[in-house]
């Protein structure tokens, strides 16, 4: 038995291509998820009132022949809360994995590219004076792999309710 294995499990699992793709997708959505969570936290009551007063809750499904605005407003509020909780789960998990990246340069590159939400081009320009473009791209890729491997270690991909 290899040192990195214990029983049926692997001590340091490596994410496969699908898991890496899922991780990158979540990293690309990180900034918008945090913005939407912030908006939800600040404006939950307003959103619920608009759903009750407005046309949003009149018909959730266009095939509805009869619409109960009050019931639909409750359903809409539950959907918004569910989305908020999913985003909270994803962003908290990404934050934890990001905090465990050992390479300071890779962590800084990820912070600028994904956590702060800058484009790939803006990230390259930001680090241009201290690293070459190929080094920056490599550091971003290393950070993506590090996060994906940490998510794999924690069993994230087995628990993730939104399969990719």
Structural overview:
With 164 residues, the chain is an all-alpha fold. The protein is built from 6 helices and 2 strands; from the N terminus they run ββαααααα. The protein has helices spanning 17-53, 69-99, 104-115, 120-127, 133-153, 156-159, and strands at 5-6, 9-10. A two-stranded antiparallel sheet has the order 1-2. Strand 1 and strand 2 form a beta hairpin. It is flat. It starts with a strand and ends in a 5-residue tail after the last helix. The model is unreliable at 1-6 (pLDDT under 50).
User: Into which percent range does the helicity of residues fall?
Assistant: 55-70%
Main sheet: strand order? 1-2
What is the structural class?
A: mainly alpha
Helix and strand sequence:
EEHHHHHH
The biggest beta sheet reads: 2 strands, antiparallel
Low-pLDDT stretches are 1-6
Rounded Rg: 20 Å
How many β-strand stretches?
Answer: 2
Mean pLDDT: 83
What labels describe this entry?
single chain; flat; 2 strands; mainly alpha; 164 residues; two-stranded antiparallel sheet; 6 helices
Write the layout of secondary structure elements.
Elements: E1 5-6, E2 9-10, H1 17-53, H2 69-99, H3 104-115, H4 120-127, H5 133-153, H6 156-159
Antiparallel strand pairs: 1-2
Helix pairs in contact: 1-2, 1-5, 2-5, 3-5
Would you summarize the structure shown here?
With 164 residues, the chain is mostly helical.
């Amino acid at each position: 038995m290899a040192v990195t294995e214990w029983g049926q499990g692997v001590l340091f699992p490596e994410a496969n291509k699908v898991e890496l793709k899922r991780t990158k997708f979540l990293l690309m959505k990180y900034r918008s998820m945090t913005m939407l969570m912030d908006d939800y936290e600040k404006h939950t009551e307003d959103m619920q009132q608009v759903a009750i007063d407005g046309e949003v809750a009149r018909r959730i499904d266009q095939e509805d022949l009869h619409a109960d605005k009050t019931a639909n407003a409750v359903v809409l509020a539950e959907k918004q809360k569910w989305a908020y909780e999913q985003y909270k789960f994803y962003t908290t998990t990404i934050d934890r994995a990001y905090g465990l990246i050992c390479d300071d340069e890779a962590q800084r590159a990820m912070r600028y590219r994904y956590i702060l939400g800058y484009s790939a081009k803006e990230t390259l320009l930001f680090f241009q004076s201290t690293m070459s473009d190929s080094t920056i791209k490599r550091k971003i890729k290393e950070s993506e792999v590090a996060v994906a491997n940490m998510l794999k270690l924690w069993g994230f991909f087995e628990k993730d309710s939104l399969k990719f």
